[in-house]
Sequence to fold (93 residues):
Amino acid sequence: MTKRTKTELSTQVSDLLPDNSSGEISPEDIRIVFTDVGDSLLFWDNTVPASDSATCAAGEVKFGLTTIGETTVCHLYVCVATDTWKRAELTSF
Fold:
């Protein structure tokens, strides 16, 4: 897997997506940029929402480590509506 910095990824997206001055970038345009069968993207900045009502827009996704008591777990956070987060613990399978 190739790790890309935010700057490298931003440049790639800017180079491959059409000018968005008309607001016409579609979800398919985004999927095309990130489709690469020989590579994967790794996003990890370990920022997690402070609470289930922290500021967000529907569709945002974050994941990171959370310490609960003396245990550290990895959670996936999804913003399901404006300022409404849900989280799931990631476990072995």
